[in-house]
Amino acid sequence: MIAPKATYPERPIGRVIVLEHGRLPTTDIYLRTRLDAPDMPLADYIDISRTGPGGMALSAAPGTGLFVVICRYVTGPWLKWLEPRRDQLAGLAFFADDDLPAMLRDNNLPLRYRYKIWRLYGRHTDRLSALASEFWVSAPALAARYAEASPRLVPPLYVGDSGRRDRTLRYFYHGTDAHGAEVEWLRDVVALVQARNERTAFEIVGDRRVRDLYRGIERVTVLHPMDWPNYLAHTEAAPQDMGLAPLLSGTVNEARTHARFYDITRTGAVGLYADRPPYAGFVRDGEDGLLLPDDKTAWVEAILALAEDEPRRRCMAEAASLRSPRRDDALAHLAGRAEAGPEAAE
Description:
The protein is an alpha/beta fold and 346 residues long. It folds into 2 domains: 13-157 and 326-345, Rossmann fold (3-Layer(aba) Sandwich), CATH 3.40.50; 169-321, Glycogen Phosphorylase B (Rossmann fold). Helix content is 35%, strand content 18%. The strands form 2 sheets. The chain has a 6-stranded parallel sheet. It has a 6-stranded parallel sheet with strand order 9-8-7-10-11-12, sandwiched between helices. Helix 2 (76-82) links the parallel strand 3 (65-71) and strand 4 (89-96). The chain starts with 12 loop residues before the first strand and ends in an 11-residue tail after the last helix.
């Protein structure tokens, strides 16, 4: 992981620049709610997969500096643009919501996914370390694992609007390529649930491999992977009843956060979660979700029981929706350095 080595002059922050590769769920779940608060400096979000630094005129008001947040990934051209502009910066933070070095070493992850991490993170670690003055992480396990880098903990802080409806009972698992083991583990669970309850419909995200894996199971929809804006639009248009969050034991998974709690809650669903950190200790079992062991039979029975208990589903989903903090102090150090207000940075 990176080790911040840069120091920048103590000066007011006139503007925050967030660099993200595509519109990422990481940005919305961990950063946007905090950075868009009224007392924070003006924040701009730049999709570096579409926008290069050429011709960019990023500057702050006189007497202030730019604070740059690199969200998980960066490109060579953007590093090349930042390096000669250190004198304009009030700080630079690198934010990681996964153990990226561990993912690079994990042979269970798809090669294309590991290559993406290397291309947008791994090969740039020395340059990132030289530019970064702060290192932000999403999970206590990451903070402990990389304690020598003095990381700042920035936990999930995001819940979108949720809605309820009466329709065929829907449940889902929306894991990414990084959750291939969980996708395979759930296959038997879903097959049994679908065989025993004709009112249920299951939704999962995946490529042809996932479609082949789940082929033959009734009422299963395999969604093509999509970017975060399209995913948000899809989930807002297709609310759910239950969200599944299995999490098998492993080094990478030990550094996960409870972000999926908010993602499930945002759909109006109640969550069924693996009974291990980060869910154990956060989810209140039986109150705002269920905690389940790594036992497929337990998951099948829990899903089937909730499918027949609409009042309990609604009660737990509503309790989960109340756990949507709108503010914390994870990034309060930026607010304390803000100039008079956003208008001062214009």
